[in-house]
């Protein structure tokens, strides 16, 4: 009987230990086994008297085991259903957290971008009513040339009347602009800076107490006075435009447009200026759209080089006329250039050869080349009101239209600024720098407030394409239509152009686009168009040479 009781007790102890183990951790079998062995050893050494107690413990243990088993079962069941719920809740919470974190990062990034790149444009918007209130407390700042000439200032009379004065009148009219009946030029682009005062704090405090206005900041432009004067005088009585850029930075060194106006009397002359047919207020350098004439042969030559890697082997026999598809193209003055290589056809501006090249081009790829050079695109520049050049050819375009387009006629239109940018990129190894006209701002103590840095648009030409185009443009000056540009002080690369602009083929605009560099690496790119002036080689190129002479003297 003792043995039987002892065995039952052992079983009871084992059950209790197993149940306790499973209620805490069903996987701890080794631990349960050790406890069982220990229980057996203890039970073997106990007396018969413990049987009665064992019997009592058996009943209690049975209840306890059942209770614990029920509790363990409930716990296990609850754990199996609750754990996935907790994981799902955590996952949803994490997704929401990450979403708002990403949203915060995006908003913070845009805020930084806006402050750095867009805030000034927003503040400077002419529709911003707050700008008008600044003029109540600030005297508009001055505008100066890069070499220190005052191009615009505000004179204050004894009675407090303010008058905006432009010392050089029409010469800088389109570049500097005006500040009545709206704004234009630097007056518009730098409006906020001119109405912002960074005068000393003490000075502003005194002015606040005494009711005096603060002096606005000055703007120093990139304009070179001597170049501007040369371009303005060189245009004479011809309408048109001149743009000069520094290829390595994009600085606008000169920008002239004619017909012009006198910004000193613009308020009085306003009605006549806006009602006339001459469009004096239009800046032809950035808004004038012209047929590019033979200057567009730069684009056609590039397209031909891309499609024909063996372009250097191209030859053509020019008789002065070229017939295709029932249409005839003439070289200027019906001149027969004779046997022409690719380089000679470019240097001599042979219309017949380039019409032949144009017909060999894939129209779609031709359009891609034009768009790579930013035709049909907004130009990357800080200037306002710059028109986009246009190029339009399709698979349905007639051979006649293709031939016209290949020599810069047809429906193709461009601005002088755009052509200056293209030759600047050629001069700069294929990299296009964005044109800009404000160099820096400073307070009334001549302390720097903000420096504007050059911005690169990126490469629009490869190194090999740049080198090939430079060779072609150099040949224009050494053996082609631009030999009058030669100098022993600098090296010239260019392209002349004569663009027909109405049904009378004798009416032509004179074009020149190109650049010059000296031994020190100093460079300048120029685009000149003179409306109705005739041949580019006889009118526009000589003006460009005058500008080169002034720049490198």
TrEMBL record:
Transmembrane segments: 93-115
Region (Disordered): 18-83
Record-linked InterPro entries: Beta-lactam/transpept, Beta-lactam/transpept-like, PBPA_dimer, PCN-bd_Tpept
GO biological process: cell wall organization
Keyword Membrane: yes
Domain of life per record: Bacteria
Domain Penicillin binding protein A dimerisation: 140-218
GO cellular component terms given for this protein: plasma membrane
Listed Low complexity bias regions: 34-83
Annotated protein name in UniProt: Penicillin-binding protein 2
Pfam family, one: PBP_dimer_2
Cross-referenced SUPFAM superfamilies: beta-lactamase/transpeptidase-like (SSF56601)
Keywords: Membrane, Transmembrane, Transmembrane helix
Keyword Ribonucleoprotein part of the UniProt annotation: no
Domain Penicillin-binding protein transpeptidase as annotated: residue spans: 240-548
One example GO MF annotation: penicillin binding
